[in-house]
Amino acid sequence: MLVEFPKLYFLKLKIISVYDYLKNNFFILVMGIVFLALSLNCYYFFILYFFYVYFLYSKYKIIFRVFLFVSVVFGFSFFIYNHLYKVTEIEEIQGIVIEIKEKDSYNQILVKSYFKKYYVYDSDKSPYRLGAKILVKGENVKIKKNQIAMAFNYQEYLIHQKIVGVIKASSIKVLSNNLSILVVKEKVNEYINNNFDDENLMFLRAVILGDDTLITSEAQEGIRINGISHLFAISGLHIGLLVIIINYLLKKIKLEENKINLLISIFLFLYLIVTSFAASILRASLMWFLFFINKKYNLKLKSLDVVSIIFLILVCINPFYIYNSGFILSFLVTFTIVLLNPLIKDKSNVIQILYISIASQIVTLPIIINFNMEINIVSFLSNVLYINLFSIVLPISFLVLIFPFLNSIYNYLIVGFFKLVDFSSYINIGLKLPYFNINMTFIYYALIAFICVFYFNKTIRNYLSLLIILFVLAITNISSFNVSKEIYFFSLYNGEAILLTDSFNQANCLIDTGDGKNNEVSNYLKRKGVKKLDYLILTHNHLDHNGEAQEIINNFKVRNVVVSIYDESHFAYLNNTIKVQANDVLEKGNLRLEVLAPLIKSNDENDNSIVLRVFFGEYYFLFLADASSIVIEKIVNNNLKADIIKVAHHGSKTSLSYKTLDILKPKVAIIQTGEIKHFGFPDKEVIASLNYYNIKIYRTDLDYSIKYQYLFNKSYFTKENL
After folding, report:
1. Count of domains in the chain?
2. What are phi and psi of 238, to 5 degrees?
3. How far apart are CA 625 and CA 497, in angstroms?
4. CA–CA distance, 593 with 613 (Å, rounded to integer)
5. pTM for the structure as a whole
6. In 3-state terms, what secondary structure has residue 699?
7. Secondary structure letter of residue 480 according to DSSP
8. What is the SS3 assignment for 275-321?
9. pLDDT value of position 562
10. Distance, CA of 178 to chain centre
11. Are residues 61 and 77 in the same domain?
12. Alpha-carbon span 151 to 364, nearest angstrom
């Protein structure tokens, strides 16, 4: 009787009129939920959502009712998640160990406590079992948002993974070691680590467990350039091949189909545990289950229906999936393959992969660019090679996993694979694009949607294709359309960097680069769409001011490198270097930089700093680099006007004097402090002096990066921590 229940239920479902309306129309619900998700993040998209709802109400009454129900479920779930998962400051946590990752100086333990998760940093690297219940005491680690515009937002990332707090452990006590299903994951990890090493271990952990932490930086760069990162993020390709292999082997031993399907189901469930329920694996596994149900009970659902149903189920259960890049990429590519299939199903395997690769690259462009800031436009060709190659390598990898005595032979294959990746990475025609904000992304996908709608109208399709090409070309030169003047004060871990951009890309000037940690300055320039720098000014030869200079020179068209006349670094001897001292002037377009120092050579490198003044927007800006108050007092006189000052030397004790402030009387002071606490920046006396003169203070340790913008004859200061 229990066995017959699902069958009776699905037979009844097929004759319900609502189900008949929804067949071949589930994608309509998906589109509506996407519009709703957009409106929850940018409220003006609610207008689009409203019109879509009105359209459904006018044309499809029954689908409209179902959509309202799905919208309410998704909206309610989104509301609950946003209120449940918020950053929490903790010094003690009790929960279950669900993941352990080994870092250089500590173990990163993921602990689950009820519905929330926490990271625990264990510097002792003590061994703990997955599933163990532990009590952790220690120091709260502050989770910061991104401190530079358009950069990766680590705080949001953790929250969307349901990780709400981080604690640096001083003590960890094991409360119990109960048997847990997580032991499957633990045993698989141990098995792979104990039986394989070097390239084999690196490759197997990547393609079997989805853990790419062991892949070398050189190999990762080759994988990125070739556009084959998706092969190392466990996906539908892996699940499809696994199911085919298991199905083939079980049929060979003449097992009944019901038992085969049961064993495949058990395997997929265990594999989900091993891969920590990765979004792409969950999507692929659920699709297999639904395809199986669809076939068994003859529900007559199309592939597009199946993918749409899985999407709706997942986002209603966990609305944070809409922020998961793996989830987004997985569904974008899957929808693309499903929609493209009728057009390519009669073509050869190679041509099918080529078409899918090109279409997937086009569809995923904004997401890929926002991560990599560049795409290799010939990577669709390498995808044809590597997807076919992977269909051979992946089954062999599972075979070697079962029979580790083949390890040495397998090593030749993996070494050869990575040599091929390295070789093919030299074929790189990189298309660099700036960051796609939500408006640009929407326009891009709207154009693609119209191309799909009018695909069989060749004239309209060609016009739309031309329009999308022109749109992408316009984006590549987006800085030329910027009507405002901007000065961007970077919030860096260590050091200073300031970018001045004149309207319509007339002039770009970068003052210092910070120490180069994570290439944050050059990455920002790429995301902003800056291609050339008229002046790269390195105020003095200290790492926290020129540490990323070479990276910027290598990746951007730098017309002039400007250094102090007393600079002895290798940057002073480049072909395009200009050496400056007091009374020199640097000009480009409307940008006129007055050099006020260095005055005389000093034994203190800080006092050899280039000090600059510029009239920008409606204010005079004074950039004091790391000059001491003694040097600054020699520069300052009653004729020197400065409305806004960048305080010298990160706000150190020797950076400002009352005499300087009394003469200048600036309106605003900006202090780029860095995050290294033992320096004690900014000094309390400096802050007291600024407050005494009622000067508005912006600090990068509190306000993160700070932007001054002059637009339509008005000035604006904005902070990244808002």
Report:
1. 5
2. -65, -50
3. 10
4. 6
5. 0.89
6. strand
7. G
8. CCCCHHHHHHHHHHHHHHHHHHCCCCCCHHHHHHHHHHHHHHHCHHH
9. 97
10. 37
11. yes
12. 19
Largest Cα separation within the chain, whole Å, is 96
| Residue whose pair of structure tokens reads 């050579």 in the numeric block | 601
DSSP string for 544-578: HHHTTHHHHHHHSEES-EEEETT--SGGGGSTTEE
Per residue in 494-526, pLDDT (tens digit) is: 999 999 999 999 999 999 999 998 899 999 999
Burial of 458 (0-12, 13-18, 19+ CB in 10 A): exposed
**527 and 657 in one domain?**
yes
pLDDT at position 574, please? Answer: 95
Is residue 10 situated within a structural domain? Answer: no
pLDDT tens per residue across span 141-182: 998 888 999 988 999 999 999 999 999 999 999 999 887 888
Q: Do residues 463 and 418 share a domain? A: no
* Domain enclosing residue 163, as ranges: 92-180
Question: How many Å apart are CA 247 and CA 229, to the nearest integer?
Answer: 27
317 and 427 belong to one structural domain? yes
Inside any domain, residue 143: yes
Q: What's the rounded Cα separation, in Å, for the pair 29 and 69?
A: 10
| Same-domain pairing of 154 and 191 | no
- CA 399, 337, 345, 424 torsion: positive or negative? negative
248 and 121 fall within a common domain: no
| Number of Cβ atoms within 10 Å of the Cβ of 560 | 16
Residue 115 and residue 73 share a domain: no
Residue 632 resides in a domain: yes
